[in-house]
Design brief:
This protein has 389 residues and is an all-alpha fold. It has 18 helices and no strands. The protein has helices at 17-37, 46-54, 61-79, 86-117, 133-138, 150-156, 160-178, 181-206, 212-215, 217-234, 237-245, 247-263, 265-268, 274-297, 302-307, 310-317, 319-337, 347-379.
Length: 389
């Protein structure tokens, strides 16, 4: 008779290697979408053009980030929900993690635009109107916009997801603090069910032909809510024991979700389709949630081993800065060196793309070591305190 395995332990208090690896996968997917899928391929053969176009599915890395954020942030808040400094500690830690590098990025943008307006060299054709984007970015309202001027697009287009995250930080802490566990679960399940309905209404009636189904918080609430729901479930030993007993079923579920996702790629790239706006995002959330559970549960499996691969974990550690700057560096490098949009059909284009990738990772690594990591440590001096009895 086989000896049953031990129940998966709850999460440790420090960094979890497998989750850093998942972050690495997420940023690699986004990298692929922009550096390969977003570059010009007009001179390739038809089958190569289709192959490169399919890499645009890498935008799905954002959804993996959302599930991870819901799981980790939700878990932190659940563990601290009875602490006396609940709100102060949470928001001060988030301020130290999110705002400094983000506001520095906005400041650099404002300096470049202001210098160009005042007569400095202006290779990107910026104007005073581009300064109007600064307050929008400072207030995390950019996900309410569905069109940007060229330089605004180059600098800020990826930050819509940061706005979704920050808006999530407004609603999640009070819900977790003040709702009973049962009511919180009802709210989370309700958000998961309601999101595709809201996306359908947004896609068909309220904001047709825009990116609203992808950008608005109510439309993406199912992905974040699923992460929080999984954080609640993971803290239940009976749930972890169930997952340990159902290892093969979990693997099969992940495989089926992955195959279904692959089959849906034609409707998940390009302009937002009805399928993507409704079932597509929900299917992707389920895929990301299942992957998260499998990696946490089956720590001796090959997937978890991949997630612990040091280069992948390192990339996951610096993923925030990489995400923030990678597309801007790609677009500006091609414009300044080749005077063209990104293209991948010539040796020069490939070389500039590789140069942009190396610069992105190098700058992000420096930012992490000398800027972000010290600030995170300072943020963690704000303690939640002893829980109320």
């Amino acid at each position: 008779m086989a000896v049953p395995s031990a129940v998966s332990p709850p999460l440790p208090s420090g960094r979890i290697p497998e989750l850093d690896g998942l972050r690495g996968i997420a940023i690699l997917l986004v990298f692929t979408a922009h550096y390969l899928g977003g570059s010009g391929h007009s001179q390739f053969s038809p089958w190569l053009r289709h192959l490169f176009a399919a890499t645009n599915i890498g935008w799905s890395g954002v959804d993996l980030f959302f599930v991870l954020s819901g799981f980790l942030i939700g878990g932190i808040l659940i563990d601290a929900r009875d602490s006396p400094h609940y709100f102060r500690a949470f928001y001060m830690r988030r301020v130290h993690r999110i705002l400094p590098i983000y506001y520095l990025w906005i400041l650099l943008y404002a300096v470049i635009v202001s210098a160009a307006v005042l007569g400095a060299p202006n290779p990107f054709s910026v104007s005073a109107r581009d300064l109007l984007q600064v307050p929008v970015q400072l207030l995390f309202l950019q996900n309410l916009q569905f069109a940007l001027y060229p330089f605004q697009f180059a600098w800020f287009v990826v930050t819509w997801s940061l706005a979704v995250e920050e808006q999530f930080y407004i609603f999640a802490p009070p819900l977790i603090r003040f709702l009973s566990p049962r009511k919180l679960i009802y709210v989370l399940v309700g958000a998961i069910i309601a999101a595709p309905v809201v996306r359908f209404a947004v896609f068909r009636y309220w904001f047709p032909g825009t990116l609203a189904p992808a950008y608005l918080l109510p439309c993406r609430a199912d992905t974040l809510a699923l992460g929080v729901l999984l954080a609640i479930a993971w803290r239940n030993s009976a749930f972890r024991a169930f997952l340990d007993r159902q290892r093969h079923s979990l693997q099969l579920t992940l495989l089926l979700l992955f195959l279904g996702f692959c089959a849906s790629i034609p409707w998940m790239v390009g302009d937002i389709s009805l399928f993507r706006a409704t079932l597509g995002y929900s299917w992707l959330a389920a895929l990301c949630g299942c992957l998260l559970l499998l990696v946490l549960t089956q720590t001796h499996g090959w997937l978890a081993s991949i997630m612990r691969w040091k280069p992948l974990r390192s990339l996951g550690t610096i993923s925030y800065c990489v995400y923030l700057i990678h597309l801007t560096i790609l677009l500006l490098a091609h414009q300044l060196i080749l005077h063209d949009p990104p293209q991948f059909h010539s040796l020069k284009g490939i070389a500039v793309t590789i140069l942009a990738a190396v610069m992105t990772v190098a700058l992000a690594a420096l930012s992490w070591r000398y800027f972000e990591k010290p600030l995170i440590r300072r943020g963690h001096t704000y303690a939640y305190g002893e829980k109320r009895v």
